[in-house]
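haha ok so turns out i had the wrong file open the whole time. this is the CORRECT one, sorry everyone. sequence first:
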Amino acid sequence: VQLQASGGGLVQPGGSLRLSCVASGRILSLASMGWYRQAPGKQRDLVALITTGGTINYLDSLKDRFTISRDNAKNTLYLQMNSLKPEDTAVYYCNARDWGSVNFWGQGTLVTVSS
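then structure:
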């Protein structure tokens, strides 16, 4: 499975961004896809996850501002991020996990929230 993430950039506090992740390869083997983020000097944390069955989980502190979605016809995962804060600054990684719990990672896209 290959994952290609895009959509990061510089945005002012209060602004919005939409990240995209295009999946290719053995997509039918996937159990879930999601977004993680890693700020400088910190561990990589789950942001949001969507399972093949449509179950969605968010980091509690983000669920009011971030929305994960997918377009199965385009093999694309999205993360809509609204009301961005400086503490949202991080590298955002697209993740996919197959039914054998093997993880696949995209290359990461940098989101910088700053005035």
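The radius of gyration is 13 Å.
again sry for the mixup
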